[in-house]
Design brief:
about 200 residues; single chain; mainly alpha
C-alpha cells in the first residue's frame, strides 16, 4: 500500500500552482497548455494529472489559494489606529506591499489580463471570493469601528471596497504595468492622501 506524504504532496501542489501562475500571467490562461505547465514543473503530463485533473481544476486551485491568502492578510491588518485616517493608511500600505510579492503580482496580472474577456475566470473568482470572504465580513466590520465613529456593516463594506479598489488601481499601474500616471506619485504620499480623503468622507 502506497503511503502519501501529505507535506510533500502539498509542496508539489504549491510548486505546480506557482509555475502555472507565472505562465498564465506571461502568456494568458487560454494560451497556456497543461503540457507547458508540466514542462515548467519538470514532470510529465500524466504526473500532473495526479494533482490536477484539468486546467480548470488548476485555475480553481490557484484562485482558491490566493483568495484565502489575501483574506489572511486582511484579517491581520491593523484593527485600530489613532484615527480613521491612520487606520486606512496602514491598511493601504499593507495592501500595496502585498502586491509586490511575486505570487500576488502574477495573480493580479492574470485577473487584469484575462478576467475581462474570460467569463470562466470571473465566475470562479467571484464564487471563491464570495464563499471565502462571506465569513470574514463581520470580523472586518468589527475592525472598522474606529473611536468616535460607529457605522453600519453595509456602509463599512462600501467604504472599504472603494478604498481598497483605489489602492489596487494604483498598485496595478505601479507594480504590474509599471506604467501610467500613478508613477508620478510617491506611494506613501499617494496612500496618505487617499486615506485623508476617505477619512474625511467617512466623517472622521
Amino acid at each position: 500500500m502506497r503511503v502519501v506524504d501529505a507535506h510533500a504532496h502539498q509542496r508539489k501542489i504549491w510548486h505546480i500552482e506557482r509555475a502555472a501562475m507565472r505562465l498564465f500571467a506571461a502568456r494568458g490562461y487560454a494560451e497556456t497548455s497543461l503540457d507547458e505547465v508540466a514542462k515548467a514543473c519538470r514532470m510529465c503530463k500524466a504526473s500532473l494529472y495526479h494533482y490536477f485533473g484539468s486546467k480548470e481544476a488548476l485555475l480553481h486551485g490557484i484562485i482558491d489559494d490566493m483568495v484565502r491568502k489575501m483574506l489572511a492578510r486582511m484579517l491581520k491588518m491593523p484593527r485600530h489606529g489613532r484615527n480613521i485616517e491612520e487606520s486606512l493608511y496602514q491598511i493601504g500600505m499593507q495592501v500595496l506591499n502585498g502586491m509586490s510579492m511575486p505570487d500576488h503580482r502574477n495573480f493580479t496580472q492574470i485577473l487584469v489580463r484575462d478576467a475581462g474577456t474570460n467569463s470562466y475566470i470571473r465566475r470562479v473568482f467571484f464564487k471563491v471570493a464570495k464563499r471565502t470572504m462571506g465569513d470574514a465580513r463581520q470580523t472586518l466590520f468589527e475592525s472598522g469601528r474606529w473611536k468616535g465613529r460607529r457605522i453600519s456593516l453595509g456602509e463599512h463594506m462600501m467604504h472599504m471596497h472603494q478604498f481598497v479598489g483605489s489602492i489596487f488601481r494604483y498598485g496595478i499601474e505601479t507594480r504590474v504595468w509599471k506604467a501610467g500616471p500613478a508613477l508620478a506619485f510617491g506611494e506613501r504620499k499617494y496612500v496618505r492622501s487617499l486615506a485623508r480623503v476617505f477619512a474625511k468622507g467617512i466623517g472622521a
